[in-house]
From TrEMBL:
Its cofactor is FMN. One of its GO terms (molecular function) is oxidoreductase activity. It comes from Hydrogenophaga taeniospiralis CCUG 15921. Keywords: 2Fe-2S, Flavoprotein, FMN, Iron, Iron-sulfur, Metal-binding, Oxidoreductase. Residues 238-323 form the 2Fe-2S ferredoxin-type domain. CDD domains: fer2, PDR_like. This is Ferredoxin. Pfam families: DmmA-like_N (PF22290), Fer2 (PF00111). Residues 5-107 form the FAD-binding FR-type domain. InterPro entries: 2Fe-2S_ferredoxin-like_sf, 2Fe-2S_ferredoxin-type, 2Fe2S_fd_BS, Beta-grasp_dom_sf, DmmA-like_N, FAD-bd_FR_type, FNR_nucleotide-bd, MRET.
Length: 323
């Protein structure tokens, strides 16, 4: 069998070096059958050697269900996932993956799409560009990297039908080709939607400039690959109450809410444990969460009716969860 529940087995048909410290994997069904369809912006949960599970965006065209393609940056600051892909995954290996999930879809109502990618954040943007080009939609892709040597998929982008809509920006290049984010986003054209993915500093700069330029939140679409560490020395203990049973679970200052729930025997779906993927999103019936995620929008956080227990905590002494 190649499937089990919400997971399926795939074979690494090809592993390729795409740029300095970036490799791609092409994943196929072991028996050559079609894989589940996906939409632009979708990602996979990939089960890696050592028991790790990591999320990687699909970067091939959405219509290509004979294969999935992902690309991974070797990150010295990672928690082991990127090292596993680069060092322990080889052509011919069989991996377990989830079916495609999409928390970063294209907005169907947009009249124009502005795609901004930083580094490895180009992966979902490639699938978006392929889909938009096939639809004949109006879009532009800006791809920012440290150098040309660290720019993945250069040949693919140069040969694409949408090559004229792609702008490459390198930190070590001439000043004239560097992306001026405030200038690009200083005003919001009617009907334009912005999509951004990449390192946190890049995303913070893009979203900050967009908000300063008056972009409405509903036109801002983003996906974080990882979250920067949050200082925890001031964290305090709090209680979680399970609404369905009245059971109270204490959360120590040095423990996440997710870990406390798991230790108490509750079955909470989880994946990234960084507040990025949204897998563990839980409804809050009362109490005030201390939101530390990069998944909910500012408006969703302000509503205080849901939180991500993998990273967020409580400002109130107790949170009542809809579990």
């Amino acid at each position: 069998m190649t499937t089990s529940g919400d997971t399926l087995a795939v074979r690494v048909a090809r592993k390729r070096q795409e740029a300095q410290d970036i490799c791609s994997l092409e994943l196929e069904h072991p028996q050559g059958q079609p894989l589940p369809a996906f939409t632009a912006g979708a990602h996979l949960d990939v089960h890696l050697p050592g028991g790790l599970v990591r999320q990687y965006s699909l970067c091939n065209a959405p219509g290509q269900t004979q294969r999935y393609q992902i690309a991974v940056l070797r990150d010295a600051q990672s928690r082991g996932g990127s090292q596993a892909v680069h060092a322990a995954v080889h052509e011919g290996d069989v991996l377990t993956i989830s079916a495609p999930k999409n928390h970063f879809p294209l907005a169907p109502q947009a009249q124009r799409h502005l795609l901004l990618a930083g580094g490895i954040g180009v992966t979902p943007m490639l699938a978006m560009a392929e889909a938009l080009s096939a639809q004949g939609a109006a879009f532009e892709l800006h791809y920012c990297t440290r150098s040309r040597e660290r720019t993945a998929f250069v040949e693919r982008l140069g040969a694409a039908a949408y090559a004229s809509r792609v702008r490459l920006h390198h930190d070590d290049g001439d000043a004239a080709q560097k992306l001026d984010i405030p200038a690009l986003l200083g005003t919001c054209d009617a009907g334009t939607h912005l999509y951004v993915c990449g390192p946190q500093g890049f995303m913070d700069a893009v979203l900050g400039a967009a908000r300063a330029g008056g972009w409405p939140e509903e036109r801002l679409h983003y996906e974080f690959f990882g979250a920067a560490p949050v200082a925890s020395d001031q964290d305090a203990a709090f209680d979680i109450e399970i609404a369905s049973s009245g059971r109270v679970i204490p959360v120590r200052a040095d423990t996440t809410a997710l870990q406390a729930l798991l230790d108490a025997g509750l079955d909470i779906p989880m994946s990234c444990e960084q507040g990025v993927c949204g897998t563990c999103l839980t409804r809050v019936k009362s109490g005030q969460p201390d939101h530390r995620d990069h998944y909910l929008t500012p408006e969703e956080q302000a509503a205080n009716d849901q939180f991500l227990p993998c990273c967020s905590r409580a400002r109130s002494a107790r949170l009542v969860l809809d579990l």
